Amino acid sequence: MKPLLLCCLALLPLLAHGKRIAVEDYAYPVTNPFIATIAGTPSDAAITLPDARDIEQNDYALALKKRSELPGVFYQGTTLKYRLAEQEGRAPLLFIIAGTGAHYASGKNELLKKLFYQAGFHVVQLSSPTSWDFISAASRSATPGYSPDDADDLYRVMQAVLANHPKLKVASVNLAGYSLGGLHAAFVGALDKQRRALNIQRVLMLNPPVNLYTSVRNLDRLVQTQVPGVSNQQTFIDGLMQRLTRFFEQQGRIEVNEAMLAAFQSSPEGLSNEELAMLIGSAFRFTVADMVYTADLLNQRGLITPKDYPLGFDSDLAPFMKRAMMCDFDCYIAQQLIPWWRAKHQGGSLVQMMNQVSLYALEDYLRDNPNIAVMHNADDVILGPGDLGWLERTFGERLTLYPRGGHCGNYAYPKNAHDMLEFFHD
């Protein structure tokens, strides 16, 4: 078992002291942080949310780049799509920024949309600046990871969305983001304080990284968790598929939801903590590979795809994605992000850049702003040593810390839902 996994599990009783929400006052039913991260809130413990058919919503697209700027393989990424759920009359508007690699209609964005729409908000769902669609259609550098520039791209997108809906009756503009989207929300809020083009009223950060480098390395290292009988990532995935197949055969049906995951974990086929950690890490590695591939191709760096290689809409991308899978986040930083940052921003060391892209860079803004808040979980696998202390010192009463929930696993739990809505209605 790797040190990260040991730390995540061993620190749980220590972190229970000094929590804003005490363990005995929080009945979220999933105590394993890895299961909470993967499965979320069990349906029998979750709030009731509206069906998508009962929401007045549509998908729209923004044309922010010229078609000639994009290779043919990105024929679906020439415009940036987003989703708007609209109330009948005047209402507060909430922009939601997705987490690492996630697009606008990802599961957590949908959950948060339903929660806030039900509470009377207009809601705009945005893709993460690290998702392939945002990189291809909206990123001016096509090299995500430098938070100030990612926020600048997001800010331009948000302005374009509002301009695209001049008849939308907006009482106030607000912002929320989860995981990496939480960090992006903070940088967008700080940018709006300077520019005042959106006049954002409130900003909510859900499970954000404090030190971006620490968080992504935590996730990267989960792939390296030692699992008995597993020699590499492909062996793990093959074994998982075999176990799922046996489970579904026993169940007599294929149905993937929270209840199924709970039943799977209770069956003989259930995963160990080491395997759960590796599953989370594998999902993150696929996300990073997508970013690595997209950034390399759009900038014609030749690291993954040879320069000027002819790629059309029907090209076979599998060989290039396999090569991208070999490049973790450290590799992306070293090969693409740091060289680009040094050239554009006259940057220096890795430590210097990481301070600029992490929450540390916004400490004064975050400490002095009563309209920005953080909600986090003490057992979140992305947190590193000292992160919770920094959040407590910086945010004070504006930090809500739950004893469990893993990484973004408890948004549908009634207590969390109530706290999120209360922040915006306070």
UniProtKB/TrEMBL annotation:
This is Serine/threonine protein kinase. Keywords: Signal. One of its GO terms (cellular component) is membrane. InterPro entries: AB_hydrolase_fold, MlaA. Residues 1-18 form the signal peptide.
